[in-house]
Amino acid sequence: MSEEMLLRGCQENDATAQHELYSKYSPRMLSVCYRYAKTREDAEDMLQEGFIRVFTQIKQFESRGSIEGWILRVIVHTCINHLKKNKRFSENLDLIFAGNLTLREDNIPSALQAKQVVECIRSLPIGYRTVLNLYAIEGYSHKEIGELLDIEESTSRSQYTRAKNMLEEILVKRKILPHVKQKKNLLTPVNIN
Fold first, then answer.
1. In sequence order, what are the residues at sequence separation of 6 or more whose Cβ sits closer than 8 angstroms to the Cβ of residue 74?
2. How many domains does the chain fold into?
3. For residues 96 and 159, what is the distance between their CA atoms, to the nearest angstrom?
4. Contact 114, 103 (CB under 8 A)
C-alpha cells in the first residue's frame, strides 16, 4: 500500500490501513517513548496512547512534511502529557535547583556504544532526560520546551546544560568515553523531521 493510500485509509478509519501504519512506524516510535519512560511498560503505554491520538487526529494531517514527522510530534507530545498526567515530571525535578542522537564519531564509534549512551540518558533524572531529549534529539528550541513543559526558557537552558554535563560524567564513569580534561560538546541538536 502506498503512503498516500495508507494515509487515506487511516483517515477513513480502515482497520487494515491503521494496522499497516502502526506496524510500519511503531518500532521507531517505541524507541522514542523509551527515551522518555522509566520502564518498558511505561514506554508501551505511551506508544499505545500516542497511536490512539494519531488515529483520532489523522484527519488533521495536512500533508505538509512527512507522515512520520507528524506521527513523531504526536508521540512526543503524548509522552510529555503522560509524564505530566502521572506527575512524574514535576515530582522528580526541582526546576529551580536542579527535540536520532548525534555524537562525535571518534568518541562513540560503535552501535553497541550508542545503545549504551541511550541507557545512560535513561539513567538521568526525568526532568533532565526530558529536556535533553526534546532539545538534543527531537530538535525543539528552549522556547518550545518551556511552553511544552510550562517552565521558563532559561530553566530549559539550564536543565539542558546540567543534563549534558551529568551525561558526560556518566559516559566517562562507565568508560564509554575516555576521560577528557576539557569538556567537549558531544551533543549536537538535530532536527529529524
1. 50, 53, 54, 57
2. 2
3. 9
4. yes
> Do 113 and 191 fall within a single domain?
yes
User: Are residues 191 and 117 part of one domain?
Assistant: yes
**Alpha helix ranges (H) inside the chain:** 3-11, 15-36, 40-57, 67-85, 88-91, 111-122, 126-132, 142-149, 153-173
**Cβ pair 29, 67 in contact under 8 A:** no
Shared domain check, 60 and 137: no
Long-range contacts of 155-162 (CB under 8 A, 24+ apart): 155/95, 155/96, 156/131, 159/93, 159/95, 159/98, 159/127, 159/128, 159/131, 160/131, 160/132, 160/135, 160/136, 162/98, 162/128
Residue 20 belongs to what domain range?
Answer: 1-86
For residue 122, the one-letter residue type is R
Checking if the pLDDT of 63 tops 50, the result is yes
70 & 158 share domain: no
pTM of the predicted model as reported, rounded to 2 decimal places? 0.71
pLDDT digits (tens, 9 = 90+) for 71-114: 999 999 999 998 888 764 443 333 332 223 443 334 444 555 66
